[in-house]
């Protein structure tokens, strides 16, 4: 009987404040969709880092005859065979840092350049002897670039030491900035949702103050009086959370798999899978249920004074 009364009061409360209930549902749905989206964005950035950093190489570019005439780092002339052997020997000794070393000759560098930039006007004027020999180094930990840089920068025969990780860091910095912006919007939406929940509960309690007063006089417990209002907020929040889950599923389906079809158009990006999305849904649903219930509970403690 008590459960039936509580459920009937929930239905009455939701219908009585239909406009504010709708506003609560929409704000909770949008804020939790942003919450889930920011979590998925973090997972995507982490996965991309693991994928791309694993392919990062450090390149030691060696001086050629052209560099000896124009580059201050090569003022002592083109790299000699002895200097190349010494560089390779030193790299072989760095077993705790270096995973693999690949040598690229001038002819190989010229061939790779023609493959990538063969249509550019500059490509037709270049010759193999103008290209640089290099050592391409695969690190065990991409964060240890400075170990290589400090060991070989400024050495005779070395024109420069370049790290591809720096290019990726700029990209990931941009993605992280976008993620934090989404979190800021999410936080504002959550505040708006909480304010709407509190106001909705208070309006509902005020409209039924006569009933609650009678219940208080006949000795009803505080929890029994508060339960319908708390459940109203929880039900509205749960509906909003369900919509947020739907938004995330639809977004994953149409943006990555179909519609925009980014998984095929941007095949260089290793997108997160469905498992990453599905694991976030229980957290979103739990948040949508607990957050409104707690907001209503604390709002009613002061308002009803039971």
TrEMBL record:
Residues 56-161 form the FtsX extracellular domain. Keywords: Cell cycle, Cell division, Cell membrane, Membrane, Transmembrane, Transmembrane helix. Its main location: membrane. It is found in: Cell membrane. It is a multi-pass membrane protein. The chain crosses the membrane at residues 21-41, 180-201, 222-255, 281-300. The keyword Cytoplasm does not apply. InterPro entries: ABC3_permease_C, FtsX, FtsX_actino, FtsX_ECD. Residues 185-302 form the ABC3 transporter permease C-terminal domain. Part of the ABC transporter FtsEX involved in cellular division. Forms a membrane-associated complex with FtsE. Belongs to the ABC-4 integral membrane protein family. FtsX subfamily. NCBIfam families: FtsX_actino. This is Cell division protein FtsX. The lineage of its organism: Bacteria, Bacillati, Actinomycetota, Actinomycetes, Kitasatosporales.
């Amino acid at each position: 009987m008590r459960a039936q009364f509580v459920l009937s009061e929930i239905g009455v409360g939701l219908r009585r404040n239909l406009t504010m209930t709708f506003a609560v549902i929409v704000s909770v749905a949008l804020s939790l969709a942003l919450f889930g989206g920011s979590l998925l964005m973090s997972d995507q950035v982490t996965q991309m880092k693991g994928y791309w950093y694993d392919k990062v190489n450090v390149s030691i570019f060696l001086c050629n005859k052209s560099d000896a005439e124009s580059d201050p780092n090569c003022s002592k002339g083109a790299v000699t065979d002895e200097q190349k052997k010494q560089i390779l020997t030193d790299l072989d000794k760095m077993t705790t840092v270096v995973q693999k070393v690949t040598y690229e000759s001038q002819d190989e560098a010229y061939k790779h350049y023609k493959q990538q930039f063969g249509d550019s006007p500059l490509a037709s004027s270049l010759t193999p002897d103008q290209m640089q020999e290099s050592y391409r180094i695969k690190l065990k930990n991409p964060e240890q670039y400075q170990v290589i840089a400090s060991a070989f920068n400024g050495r005779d025969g070395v024109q420069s030491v370049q790290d591809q990780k720096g290019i990726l860091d700029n990209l990931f910095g941009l993605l992280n900035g976008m993620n934090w912006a989404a979190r800021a919007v999410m936080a504002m939406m959550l505040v708006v949702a909480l304010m709407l929940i509190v106001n909705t509960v208070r309006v509902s309690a005020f409209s039924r103050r006569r009933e609650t007063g009678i219940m208080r006089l006949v000795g009803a417990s505080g929890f029994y009086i508060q339960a319908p209002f708390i459940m109203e907020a929880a039900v509205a929040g749960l509906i909003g959370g369900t919509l947020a889950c739907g938004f995330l599923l639809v977004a994953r389906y149409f943006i990555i798999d179909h519609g925009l079809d980014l998984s095929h158009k941007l095949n260089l990006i290793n997108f997160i899978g469905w498992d990453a999305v599905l694991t976030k849904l229980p957290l979103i649903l739990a948040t949508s249920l607990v957050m409104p219930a707690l907001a209503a509970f604390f709002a009613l403690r002061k308002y009803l004074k039971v």
